[in-house]
Specification:
It catalyses: L-histidyl-[protein] + phosphoenolpyruvate = N(pros)-phospho-L-histidyl-[protein] + pyruvate. The protein is an alpha/beta fold. It has helices at 38-63, 65-78, 81-92, 97-115, 117-121, 123-138, 161-165, 185-193, 228-247, 272-277, 301-314, 351-356, 358-373, 389-402, 414-418, 420-426, 434-441, 460-476, 490-498, 511-518, 523-534, 539-551, and strands at 3-6, 8-10, 14-21, 152-156, 172-177, 196-199, 212-216, 221-224, 262-266, 282-287, 319-323, 378-383, 406-411, 430-432, 480-482, 503-506. It folds into four domains: 3-23 and 145-243, 3-Layer(bba) Sandwich (Glucose Oxidase, domain 1), CATH 3.50.30; 38-138, PtsI, HPr-binding domain (Enzyme I, Chain A, domain 2, Orthogonal Bundle); 280-407, Phosphoenolpyruvate-binding domains (TIM Barrel), CATH 3.20.20.60; 412-553, Phosphoenolpyruvate-binding domains (TIM Barrel). It contains 22 helices and 16 strands. α3 (81-92) packs across α4 and α16 packs across α18 (460-476). The two termini are 29 Å apart.
Length: 553
Amino acid sequence: MSSSLTGTGIGRGIAVGGVLRMPDPLPEPDDTASALTPDAEKERARASLAATAAIIRHRGERAGGSAKDVLEAQAFMAEDPTLIDDIGTRLDSGKTAERAVFEAFASFRDLLVSMGGYMGERATDLDDVSQRVVAHLRGVPAPGVPDPEHPFVLVARDLAPADTALLDLSKVLALVTSDGGPTSHTAILAREKSIVAVVGVTDALTLADGTEIVVDAATGTVTVAPSSEERTAAEAKAAEIKAARSSATGPGALADGTLVPLLANLGSADGAADALEKGAEGVGLFRTEFLFLDSSSAPTVEEQKAQYKRLLEAFAGKKVVVRALDAGADKPLSFLNDAPEENPALGLRGLRALRANEPILRDQLAALAAAEAETDADVWVMAPMVSTVEETRYFTALAREVGLKTAGVMVEVPSSALLADRILADADFASIGTNDLTQYTLAADRLLGSVASFQDPWHPAVLKLVGEVGKAGRATGKPVGICGEAAADPLLAVVLVGLGATTLSMSPSALADVRAELARFTLDEAQHFAELALSANSAVEARGAVTTAAASQ
Ligand code: PEP
Ligand code: MG
């Protein structure tokens, strides 16, 4: 008899496979005297250090690319002669190999941290190597993402960015986590890489290695030990999804033919070819600040023009929405705002920081106008974090003065959503940034893990604000785009269209799933889903109500 667990599904995929748990971090080895001689302990330490270096190197060779370099550097750490000497000295004083390795790595780690900068950042790598050597000495699985030769479903508490960097996507059939919500790092990764995932499954850690499970993201369920009928049904559904994904090409559209252009979110021209290949019909959000995150001084007009031209040339004949530099909070740009602030998300950020440095804003708009003049993309420009009608007027007037013909604003603050009709009287378009709009509507810092569960764009309060902008768009006949993470959630994307969004912009890897999902429903159905979501009391209820309604269509 199968049983099932539930959580929050990411996307609509389904996968069947055997569980492999991410081992828990190892406890600190006890500091008790060794029962062996120092020489015997030295031999144990030597063998485990050498084996760990060889295993890490082997992983690097299999991973290739930049992971190979990272892992090669880690292998060298396990062979570092200073460290090995330090371990030897500690063993001579009667410690166990486990304890000596732990202590020697920890003291080396503290040294690196005190050096700061690049060396300090290597401290985590050193911790990882230390844990691996200790695990080898104890004969238990190494911590971190398991790396077997066969495909598996990864079950973990949650995944850290360092874990996910080395995930071998050809082996990971699906992800199931006990923690994390729809905007956790795991969820973002799953969406970005189109991995089947269900997060926030409270009892996930009770799943034993090797147990067969069906992971169904559309319903947010994990079926444990499925019957052969359940397995066959899941495999058929997976094949159907794969077929729908590959057949859903061409412009984004609902089942009744209503066009919903699907655009890409990009942070540099480097992603342009990939976005086009995945069917992006243009760019809905070009995050220009990503080009200059490392700069300590403002970029020159020429430097910017070259960057913008590269992107516009790649999207010749298509729409490209460029966002003016969005500095502050999660995206610090020291040349725009270097002042320490108690609440940076509520501080001098976005358009406010640009306005306080108007020459930088003018330079950026001029660079963009110059790039536009030399290419034939359809350039739209927008300001981030606009919270008043007056700011809208300021930005659109300046952009037009510089010669840019289509100027709009991002709606990321509730005040702008509530006055969207007045904002759209001036702006040529609005683009809703649901990441920030959710943060400000629920008053929960989007970077703070302790309030991550509030960061859910399915929340009816967020959707109500999106609906206000949609209504204003219809009344004024102006386009309303969505460019936050919400647009990459296939079912939520349908709801957003039901609320009045006319375009959706997302990371390119989400395009296929969103395109396939839009094609399943008519505008009437999308509007019905929107009403269901709006009348819910919580994000969970809204998602649940729409998921159930969509499954019965
Ligand atoms: C948003 O806030 O939704 C958005 C698209 O902008 P960013 O994530 O870059 O702040
Ligand atoms: Mg934003």
